[in-house]
Amino acid sequence: MARSDITGVLFDALSLAMQAKAGSIDPQDIDEVQACTEQVLTSSHPVTLAINDFATQYQLHAHDYARVTELGDELLRIVELHAMPDAVDAGRSDIYG
Q1: Does residue 65 lie within any of the structural domains?
Q2: Mean of the pLDDT values across residues 67-79?
Q3: Of 21, 24, 79, 30, which is closest to residue 52 (Cα–Cα)?
Q4: Conformational region of residue 92, where left means phi above 0, alpha means psi within -120 to 50, and beta covers everything else
Q5: In terms of DSSP H, where are the helices of the chain?
Q6: Is residue 93 situated within a structural domain?
Q7: What CATH number does residue 69 fall under?
Q8: Residue 73's domain spans which residues?
Q9: Phi/psi zone of residue 84: left (φ > 0), alpha (ψ -120 to 50 degrees), beta?
Q10: What average pLDDT does the structure give for the chain?
């Protein structure tokens, strides 16, 4: 894991989310993704907050398969939101008002 740009962080977060949904998460992966995220993104970035929340909640609910799956779903939603590029014409007031 552990990549050095935002795309890498998103891929690593996606990997965590999918591992959680599959029930095969490695706690060391969580630590690595958190460390990489802290290097690449600000502490107030939504992806950083989501990964830190995921890590905290995972520690509390590691033995609750249903809750870990929900955590994976929540992290996946955040990753999907931030993986979508801004529209090229997002600044056009004649289209978007």
Answers
A1: yes
A2: 96
A3: 30
A4: beta
A5: 6-22, 27-40, 46-61, 65-83, 93-96
A6: no
A7: 1.20.120
A8: 6-82
A9: beta
A10: 89
